[in-house]
Amino acid sequence: MSSADLECWHGALSRSNAHRLLTSRGLQNGMYLIRAGRGGRDPVVSLVANEEVQHFVVTTSPVHLCMKLDGGPWFVGLDEMIRHYSHRSHGLPVALREPCMGDSIPQALLAAGPDTPLHLATRNNDLNAIRAIAGEQPELLEYRDRAGRTCLHLAVLGGDLATVETLLLVGSNVRLPDTDGSSAMHIAARTGNTEAIILLHKFRSELTARAHKTGWQPLHEAAYTGNYEATKLLLEMGVPAHPRCQLGKTPAELARTRNHTRTTTLVESWSKPNTVSSRIHSSHFLHGAIDRLEATNLVLQNGPGSFLVRESRRRPGEFVLTMNFGNHVYNYEIRNSDHLWFSIDEGPMFESIEQLIEYYLQAGEGLPGKLTRPIEPVDQATKDIPARRAGPQHHEPPPPKAVDPNEFHGAQAPHIPPESLEMMNPLGEGEFGSVMQGVWHPPGPHQPLPVAIKTLRADCLVSGEQEFVREAAVMARLQHPSIVTLYGVCRERQTGTLMLVQELLEAGSALDFILNNAKTVGLEEFRVWAAQIAGGMDYLEERKLVHRDLALRNILLAGKRRAKISDFGLSRAVGSESDYYRASQGGRWPVKWYAPESVNYGQFSSKSDVWGFGITLWEMWSWAAPPYGNLPGSEVIKWIEQGGRLVQPKHCPDKVYKIMRNCWDYEKEKRPTFRELLTTFRRNPDYFDFHLS
């Protein structure tokens, strides 16, 4: 991306004037500008798509101060956002192709920019210069340097406590992330600077702030780097000992992967002093096995912030949190993993439900908001809540085996030497890394092959490698004309970067193809793609494989009439004794494509993939419209539970919509199998022209 791509800022330009300006520039498809929203708050992207001007608000998170377009990933700055959406549309009607020239984007809105005099003064620990510059230009406190760090990040990295304190006193924002999504508190924990941790906390820096890219809290940073004193300090300051990152890893697990035995033992054996009973006791909130309707009425009667814990009638011995937030009722299953830890969804794990409730009285992480007012049961003779049982003892891990750092272990797929790969253009960004276009030069007389190279970012080497290896292992076993072919795996020699090398499908994703070719793609292509996808999924179903992320964005095109299933990063093999598996790891779930049993109970099977197939069909016949529009995931789940389903798209034949509705049967056993769907497609030439070759 060139600097010219950032000269698209048009300040307080109104919506109507943005429309006039883009019209005067010829309404070129993909031309865009960025302007300030009303009151100078959230920026707005004005974009030309199919000769129409559309406007998209850039939302800024009040928690980690990052920004995103609706439904898209989080970014630290507008430069990151432009770079991402210039390679793929990812929910926009078209990709960002041509900036409508204006001013440069303000540096405060960039993930990285030129160094300022304040950055220089910070590096030199010049306290007088810091005070003078910040007094005259306080906005510089929020500017990031070329490496994406604010002055406060630089000061904490430098370790000079006086510089850190001076920057805090002149008004540095302790919540601002660097380009990796880390706050200054993350940096202090990572570097083991206990004095900086105490000082930052004094200025209200959050001890449990999460880096938006990884979900790491400061405790993850301290444990991963083996900073024992910083880890101990954070625990003594009251942070949960077992928070999980986006991929389900706890600080103890991260410390163990780095062989930090002392830190691992500290976190695993940490038991919070039992001061809970003086604050909140189970008698204040624990009700018996009351039903969901009664619990709902109680929290509505007691107003916003009220909550109770009830025993599940469906699963005796398990508990549910019912809470009222903004006069909306939410129910959360309290999980008791292996009878060792209590947690809600993928949040922190606690030794007792009382400790869990105490935590959510102080922090609303993962919930709509904080719990505030417990509802005491009328009948005080309630049963006691179980506490954590003694867990298995952890033994020292065996010493790591010597491995060749240039080889890729863990996936049964051909190893490709890194020198045989030629990197070219970026194709997009994934959860763990980027996808590059490249050329593979196989040994012997074989001709060079165009390939897609999927890389794993360095910051995911611990949290993402297991998923990356799993995807390689799954793809290496698959040979089907409707599934993307994996050629091999590779590890870059110097950096250790992991790579999947797979066939290049130059037409890109079906989602982007429809959005970019809306006038030339239609029903004929949709029919062929649907049949080909069903054929590939039937192949997976036969092999007891669950895809888990079947959606139009994960269908790649080798041509206008050749669709292939990709992205097996969420796939799992189900055991021969069961036709489903229960998800036990964290991560971001695409709930708008998920079946009810997947959302409610974490169960995934070929039948839940069938539900996702129905959503994928709906995306096609809706010309890549987002399912459920702007409805939040929580509201979608509630609507489905009440019997709601996506409406029939305007140009969708009745027969096709009937297939979709069959895929969305609430009872999974009533949904068709992929073999039945494939048979339907083959036997109905009236609307499906099935070709695999």
TrEMBL record:
Keyword annotations of the record:
ANK repeat, ATP-binding, Kinase, Nucleotide-binding, Phosphoprotein, SH2 domain, Transferase, Tyrosine-protein kinase
A GO cellular component annotated for this chain's UniProt record is: cell periphery
Which species does the entry assign this protein to? Oikopleura dioica
Q: Name one GO molecular function term.
A: ATP binding
* GO biological process terms on file: signal transduction
Asked if ATP-binding is a keyword of the record, the answer is yes
Q: Mind telling me which PROSITE patterns this protein's record contains?
A: ANK_REP_REGION, ANK_REPEAT, PROTEIN_KINASE_ATP, PROTEIN_KINASE_DOM, PROTEIN_KINASE_TYR, SH2
Return the protein name. Tyrosine-protein kinase
Show the segment(s) annotated as Disordered: 388-417
Ranges annotated as biased composition (Basic and acidic residues): 388-398
Q: Which SUPFAM superfamilies match?
A: Ankyrin repeat (SSF48403), Protein kinase-like (PK-like) (SSF56112), SH2 domain (SSF55550)
Family per record? Belongs to the protein kinase superfamily. Tyr protein kinase family.
Enumerate the InterPro entries for this protein: Ankyrin_rpt, Ankyrin_rpt-contain_sf, Kinase-like_dom_sf, Non-receptor_tyrosine_kinases, Prot_kinase_dom, Protein_kinase_ATP_BS, Ser-Thr/Tyr_kinase_cat_dom, SH2
Q: Which residues cross the membrane?
A: none
Please indicate if the UniProt record lists Magnesium as a keyword: no
